[in-house]
């Protein structure tokens, strides 16, 4: 795969990951009511996300309510919120920086070395936004859901919560963004370095001919 095609593939993968991360942050299905055990399945399904909680009835009617207070939320929800917001901001800057540094764009094409370095910087932003933010936020929330599900409690197992679809979307978004950022980080200006090395090697031989 050529350098330009690799950059384009990495950019599209990272862009898809950022769109998925935005969807995961907005969806209320970070955890959902569990139907495990030998209990009767109720007609109401409960969902809870970073910003709201919803109740879906068997008739198809869905009622959602925003979380009332930020300070009254659990620590893992507040932390996941902050990490997802930072992730989306880093991804936004990564999109802009990567567009400037990609070979298929006309911006700064008179200096290919600097342009490639800008593309690498965009890839680093994507990797940071996925690895240190999206993945951390989703994994932290999933860890808390797992802990509450398996801990000893008087709450019956069918009244507890398990993983929602937004968690899996978040893991997929993190994987896509890290893959795309890694491909963009491979855009090192190797050809320019090879040209400079060839020039330095050929310089002494020309001097000897003139002497």
UniProtKB/TrEMBL annotation:
<keyword id="KW-0965">Cell junction</keyword>
<dbReference type="InterPro" id="IPR006187">
    <property type="entry name" value="Claudin"/>
</dbReference>
<keyword id="KW-0472">Membrane</keyword>
<keyword id="KW-1133">Transmembrane helix</keyword>
<keyword id="KW-0812">Transmembrane</keyword>
<dbReference type="GO" id="GO:0005923">
    <property type="term" value="C:bicellular tight junction"/>
</dbReference>
<feature type="transmembrane region" description="Helical">
    <location>
        <begin position="163"/>
        <end position="184"/>
    </location>
</feature>
<keyword id="KW-0796">Tight junction</keyword>
<dbReference type="GO" id="GO:0005198">
    <property type="term" value="F:structural molecule activity"/>
</dbReference>
<feature type="transmembrane region" description="Helical">
    <location>
        <begin position="82"/>
        <end position="100"/>
    </location>
</feature>
<feature type="transmembrane region" description="Helical">
    <location>
        <begin position="120"/>
        <end position="142"/>
    </location>
</feature>
<dbReference type="GO" id="GO:0005886">
    <property type="term" value="C:plasma membrane"/>
</dbReference>
<dbReference type="InterPro" id="IPR004031">
    <property type="entry name" value="PMP22/EMP/MP20/Claudin"/>
</dbReference>
<dbReference type="InterPro" id="IPR017974">
    <property type="entry name" value="Claudin_CS"/>
</dbReference>
<dbReference type="Pfam" id="PF00822">
    <property type="entry name" value="PMP22_Claudin"/>
</dbReference>
<comment type="function">
    <text>Claudins function as major constituents of the tight junction complexes that regulate the permeability of epithelia.</text>
</comment>
<protein>
    <recommendedName>
        <fullName>Claudin</fullName>
    </recommendedName>
</protein>
<comment type="similarity">
    <text>Belongs to the claudin family.</text>
</comment>
<keyword id="KW-1003">Cell membrane</keyword>
